[in-house]
Amino acid sequence: MSHGETDKQQATASEAYTAVVITVSDRCSRKEREDASGPALVALLGERGYRVVATRVVPDEQPQIEAAIRAAAERDAALVLTTGGTGLSPRDVTPEATAAVCTRMAPGIPEAMRAASMAITPHACLSREVAGILDRTLVVNLPGSPKAAIENVSAVIGPIAHGIEMLRGGQADCAAEGH
């Protein structure tokens, strides 16, 4: 099977899945700056066959980030992408909020994103994204810049579709695929 065929299958597999995009930004939440990362992620998810059912902008406040993630899981969203709040600034608490609400972590996703991003910029090692599972929802943190958010999620969007299929009780069989 060619790489292109694999991408088509993964895009088809994600067609039935819903997604929520949460932008974490003090300035965007106060309407001092327009959110560019959220809409960029919505467009990418749409191209990959996901149905984005909600977008939110919340400030860099851990309780509000946690509440937004929980609300998305209560909607039974298959995927939640957060953008912003993953750096070293004292206000960057998105990873802590994600870890606080997730019952299981998926460390390979952010490891793969950082590895791919390191090929683009050495600053990628400063990103603290995490990924985890809350109920039947996969939560993935992304950087706040539109360019970095798209680059990071693009590195893992195919495996994410496979992971969601497994999480949602699909018939994904890693052994049959040689993985």
Automatic annotation (TrEMBL):
Keyword Glycosyltransferase assigned: no
Coiled-coil segments: none
SUPFAM superfamilies cross-referenced by the UniProt entry: Molybdenum cofactor biosynthesis proteins
Any one Pfam family match given in the protein's UniProt record, by short name: MoCF_biosynth
One annotated GO biological process: Mo-molybdopterin cofactor biosynthetic process
Pathway: Cofactor biosynthesis; molybdopterin biosynthesis
Residue ranges occupied by any MoaB/Mog domain in the UniProt entry: 20-163
SMART domains associated with the record: MoCF_biosynth (SM00852)
Keywords linked to the UniProt accession: Molybdenum cofactor biosynthesis
Domain of life: Bacteria
Signal sequence interval, chain numbering: none
UniProt cross-references to Gene3D superfamilies, sorted A to Z: MoaB/Mog-like domain
PANTHER family, A to Z: MOLYBDENUM COFACTOR BIOSYNTHESIS, MOLYBDOPTERIN MOLYBDOTRANSFERASE
Protein name: Molybdenum cofactor synthesis domain protein
Organism: Olsenella profusa F0195
Taxonomic placement: Bacteria, Bacillati, Actinomycetota, Coriobacteriia, Coriobacteriales
